[in-house]
Predict the 3D structure of the following.
Amino acid sequence: MNVLYFGLPLGACLLAADGHRIVQAVMGRPEGTGLRRLRRVLGPERVTMLGSLGSGKAPKNLESLVHPGPIDLVVSWFFPKKLPPAILQLGRRGTVGVHPSLLPRHRGPDPYFAAIDQGDPVTGVTAHRLEADYDTGAMLDRESLPIDSSWDAWTLARKLDRPSLRVLRRVVRALADGTAIEERQDEALATQAPEPGPDLLELDVKSMTPESALRRIRAAAPWPGAYFFTGEECLVVERASAVAAAPFLEAGELAALPDGRVLLGLAQGALHVERVRDEEDDVLAGEALHRWAEARLSLA
């Protein structure tokens, strides 16, 4: 099958190994695992580099970069731009992309944050048709993955790489041999997963439990991180643990205990704050963090 490919090089390498002809591979980032291999397999003339692209719409002239020739399928695998309608219409057998969630749950750019922050026990990947609206097309295949309670967003993303590639290869093979089955998404079950802004990244100490605060910290890690304010100072929490009860602390109150722990009061219980990053990106942990907290509290 003749495939017009957009995304990370590894997906194109594996589709080529499966016997599909990659007529052109368009890379949205200047690096990626398998890039040199892809150039060897396809030849440099069939690999197009668009440089470093952020999320959002693709360049308006993207279709002008596509080489002429028959295209059976348009594939997008972690391409950081929305493909324009002119590109989506090129494939005689349509389009396919893979989203790192179990659609229709967590549509949007950051399903990793959403899945961890909302306490989902299971997530996964979904192959789907590409439409004008993100992540709304008919589903073609999926694979589930239980979420370990120790994973942060970066770890979850890495854990979903292999399932995503398996689903991609499986569904392209099914589309090639005519066995693919489409299933419409249930709009009643759809949820959104936007990029988290300041309102989601800040720890709402007046409403959170230790469990919800720890989920927020893991969901925002390792970058940009979940944060709280002590006075006018902003601290990003890199590591913490739960304290079930701390009746001597008000929500948002910081305490440097004689045993060396630094606690942050929550609506229920508290966090044992173990490692933070300040506004200058300096890291405080252990004794250094305890001394900082003592000095900060002495000025309050």
Observations:
- The first helix runs from residue 9 to 17.
- The mean pLDDT is 94.
- Residues 198-299 form a domain with the Methionyl-tRNA Fmet Formyltransferase; Chain A, domain 2 fold (CATH 3.10.25.10).
